[in-house]
C-alpha cells in the first residue's frame, strides 16, 4: 500500500481542469496527477502555501488496483452519503458516474473542478469554494453499488454478483427507513472535515436530476486503525481496532474479491457493510467498570484482553478463573466476534464515531458509524447473526441504519469510471 504524497500544496487546488459531461472523458489530468494548469500554477508559485500543514498537502493515489479509502490508513473524518438514483436512463447514470470519477480524481489530488469565480458575471461557479486553499488533506472517496442497482433499471441484472443481496434481518435490529437502503454509497474520508464535506457536496450537486440524497452520516473520529496507527477510542471509551486486519496477506484473503468471483468486474473490489449504530450513552455512563470490562472482554484503559495484561496480548478464550468461569465471558463482544471462534472469519473494520447532537427528549444522540469491508457479505452476516442475538453489548446499542454495497476495483486511468464494465 503506497503512503501519502506529501507537499502537494493547495496552490494547485484551483489550477482548474473542467470535468467533461461526456461519459468516460478525461479531464486534463496528466500522468502525474497534476493538470497542466495546476502544474503551471505550482511552478509559477501562484498563491501562498502559508498555513498549509504537511497533512493538508498529502494525497493518496486515485488510480490503482483497489479503490482508496479501504486499505488506506483511516483518516480522522468521514462523510458517508447514500444516494437514490432517480433517472431510469442508463445513459444519464453513465454520464453521472463518469463525471463523478473525473471529479474525484481531481478532488483527491487537491484539485478543483471548475472555478469558484468565473469571469462572466452571469456564470454559475463550477466549484462551491469552501475547500479553496485547504489542500487535499489525504482525501479518499470510495463508491459502491447496492443490490437495488441490479434490479433491471439500467440493464445491470446480468452483472449482479450472487453474494450481493439485501442483508437479512438480525435479532435486535432497530432499523429506521431514514438511515437504511439506497442505491449508491459514497464514503469520503479526509484529515479535514470540510474537505470531505466539500467532495460529497459537489458530487451531490453534479448528480442533481440523476440521483437524490437519501441518508448521510458525518463521522468525527476514526474508530479503527491500520498497521502504523495507534488505536483510537470509540465513544464508549474503549480502544477500537486493536485486532483489525492490517497486513497485505489478510487483505488478500479476507477483503479483496479474487478472480474466482462469479462477476469478473468485481475482481479487486470488495463489499462494504454500513451500520449506523446508536449508543445508549446515558445508560452506558451509569454502568460500573467491572461490567464494562465484561461487556467487551477487554480492559478500558489498556485495552488488554481480560485473559492478558497488554493491548496486543492474544486473548485466551479457554482461560478460566478460580470460580471456574471463563475469564473472557462467552457472551462478551470479543469472544463472540473473534476469528478463533468463527472459523477464521475476519472483516476489515473502518468505522467512525458520530454524533447527531441530542434527541427530542434531550438524550445524547451519538454512536458508531460501523463500516466493514469483506470479500463476501456473508462474513459480516455470520458475525452479526451471533452478535445480534447474544452480544452483551446489545443492552447499550441499537442498530438504526444499514446498507450493503458492491465496491468495484480501483479505476485504471483517466477515462475509466465507476461501473464502466456494467454498461457493456
Ligand atoms: C457500537 C457497536 C460496536 C462497538 C462499540 C464495538 C467495539 C469493539 C471493541 C472495543 C473491540 C475490541 C478491540 C478491537 O479488537 O478492535 C471490538 C472488536 C471487534 N468487533 Fe466490535 N464493536 C461494535 C460493533 C461491531 C459489529 C457490528 C461487528 C461485526 C458484525 C463487530 C466486529 C468486531 C470484531 C470482528 C472485533 C475483533 C474481535 C477480536 O478478534 O478480538 N463489532 N469491537
Automatic annotation (TrEMBL):
Subcellular location per the Swiss-Prot or TrEMBL entry: Cell envelope
Enzyme nomenclature, EC number: 1.11.1.-
Domain Dyp-type peroxidase C-terminal: 231-410
Class in the EC hierarchy, top level: oxidoreductase
Biological process according to GO: iron import into cell
Annotated cofactor note: Binds 1 heme b (iron(II)-protoporphyrin IX) group non-covalently per subunit.
CC terms in the record's Gene Ontology section: cell envelope; cytosol
Keywords: Heme, Iron, Lyase, Metal-binding, Oxidoreductase, Peroxidase, Signal
Protein's UniProt keywords contain Protein biosynthesis: no
Keyword Lyase belongs to the record: yes
GO MF term set: ferrochelatase activity; heme binding; metal ion binding; peroxidase activity
Record Pfam families: Dyp_perox_C, Dyp_perox_N
Dyp-type peroxidase N-terminal domain location: 67-220
InterPro entries: Dimeric_a/b-barrel (IPR011008), Dyp_perox_C (IPR048328), Dyp_perox_N (IPR048327), Dyp_peroxidase (IPR006314), EfeB/EfeN (IPR006313), TAT_signal (IPR006311)
Signal peptide positions (record): 1-25
Catalytic activity: heme b + 2 H(+) = protoporphyrin IX + Fe(2+)
Cofactor: heme b
Main function: Involved in the recovery of exogenous heme iron. Extracts iron from heme while preserving the protoporphyrin ring intact.
Family according to the record: Belongs to the DyP-type peroxidase family.
Protein name, per record: Deferrochelatase
Amino acid at each position: 500500500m503506497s503512503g501519502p504524497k506529501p507537499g502537494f500544496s493547495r496552490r494547485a487546488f484551483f489550477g482548474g481542469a473542467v470535468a467533461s459531461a461526456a461519459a468516460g472523458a478525461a479531464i486534463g489530468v496528466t500522468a502525474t496527477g497534476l493538470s497542466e494548469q495546476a502544474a503551471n500554477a505550482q511552478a509559477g508559485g501562484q498563491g501562498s502555501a502559508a498555513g498549509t500543514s504537511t497533512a493538508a498537502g498529502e494525497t493518496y493515489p486515485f488510480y490503482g488496483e483497489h479503490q482508496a479509502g479501504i486499505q488506506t490508513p483511516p483518516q480522522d473524518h468521514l462523510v458517508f452519503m447514500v444516494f437514490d438514483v432517480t433517472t431510469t436512463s442508463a445513459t444519464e447514470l453513465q454520464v453521472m458516474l463518469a463525471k463523478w470519477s473525473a471529479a474525484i480524481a481531481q478532488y483527491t489530488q487537491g484539485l478543483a473542478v471548475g472555478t469558484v469565480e468565473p469571469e462572466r458575471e452571469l456564470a454559475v461557479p463550477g466549484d462551491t469554494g469552501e475547500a479553496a486553499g485547504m489542500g487535499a488533506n489525504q482525501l479518499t472517496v470510495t463508491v459502491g453499488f447496492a443490490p437495488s442497482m441490479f434490479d433491471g433499471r439500467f440493464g445491470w441484472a446480468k452483472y449482479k454478483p450472487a453474494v450481493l443481496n439485501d442483508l437479512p434481518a438480525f435479532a435486535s435490529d432497530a432499523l429506521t427507513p431514514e438511515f437504511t437502503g439506497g442505491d449508491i454509497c459514497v464514503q469520503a474520508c479526509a484529515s479535514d472535515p470540510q474537505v470531505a464535506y466539500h467532495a460529497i457536496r459537489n458530487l451531490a450537486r453534479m448528480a442533481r436530476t440523476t440521483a437524490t440524497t437519501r441518508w448521510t452520516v458525518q463521522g468525527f473520529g476514526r474508530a479503527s486503525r491500520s498497521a502504523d496507527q495507534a488505536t483510537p477510542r470509540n465513544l464508549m471509551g474503549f480502544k477500537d481496532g486493536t485486532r483489525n486486519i492490517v497486513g497485505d496477506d489478510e487483505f488478500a484473503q479476507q477483503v479483496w474479491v479474487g478472480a474466482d468471483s462469479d462477476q469478473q468486474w468485481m475482481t479487486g473490489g470488495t463489499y462494504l457493510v454500513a451500520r449506523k449504530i446508536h449508543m445508549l450513552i446515558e445508560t452506558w455512563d451509569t454502568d460500573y467498570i467491572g461490567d464494562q470490562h465484561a461487556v467487551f472482554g477487554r480492559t478500558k484503559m489498556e485495552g488488554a484482553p481480560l485473559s492478558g495484561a497488554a493491548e496486543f496480548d492474544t486473548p485466551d478464550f479457554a482461560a478460566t478463573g478460580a470460580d471456574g468461569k471463563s475469564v473472557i465471558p462467552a457472551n462478551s463482544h470479543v469472544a463472540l466476534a473473534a476469528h478463533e471462534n468463527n472459523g477464521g472469519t475476519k472483516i476489515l473494520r473502518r468505522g467512525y464515531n458520530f454524533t447527531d447532537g441530542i434527541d427530542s427528549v434531550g438524550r445524547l444522540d451519538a454512536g458508531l458509524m460501523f463500516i466493514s469491508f469483506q470479500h463476501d457479505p456473508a462474513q459480516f452476516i455470520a458475525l452479526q447473526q451471533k452478535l445480534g442475538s447474544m452480544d452483551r453489548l446489545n443492552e447499550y446499542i441499537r442498530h438504526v441504519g444499514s446498507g450493503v454495497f458492491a465496491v468495484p476495483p480501483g479505476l485504471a486511468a483517466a477515462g475509466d469510471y465507476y461501473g464502466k464494465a456494467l454498461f457493456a
